[in-house]
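Now for our specimen.

. . .
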Amino acid sequence: MPRETLCLLPGMMCDARLFAPQRTALGGLCDIVIGDIGGADTISGLADALLAELPHRFNLAGLSMGGIVALEMARKAPGRVMRLGLLDTSFGPEAGHRKARRDDQIGRVRAGGLRDVLVAEMKPYYLAAGHTGEAALNTLFVDMAMQLGPDVFIRQSLALRDRPDQSETLRRFNGPALVLCGREDRMCPPAIHEQMAALLPDAELVIIEDAGHITTLEAPEAVNAALDAWLMRPA
């Protein structure tokens, strides 16, 4: 029997390093692909590009913006997504005040302020209180973002600003779903994940204590265990 594929989609301004512990732990179970979500300025365009490259059937999990793109892929091709994992993410459209904030950030990044926006307005919301002093994690977030660069930041900001509501996608997805977040996630709090789990027909909700928005790196063993159990559920 051929090995299954697991496509992992990173969050905004993150790369494959976001999933380093998962690639190590789950590589024996399936073929792991890290998707690129930096090449288009709409969620639909990002989903189309990924669907064009992936096999006919695959497992799909995304963190933060990656989860938002994953939902669009499930909307466009529900029969191709065997299992859906939504980690530290959201399903609704962008609120009006956050649209205005994104427009402001885009302007400052265009003027050369990418590092300032990252350090002052994004990084402080990533980690749980117990992890905020971890220098390696803080350095990694900035390194990933600076290597991706301002053009990716602008495209991703536009895509998130104009994203659609995916409530109906959740209701219609019938495969095994994992909905997971950190208890201290301030960007996409547990209440949002409880709503997603309630909308999905076949969801397991996992809340990880002492973790924030970046659960894959803050609590890798707990995330790996949840993903492993999800991959074992009959599709």
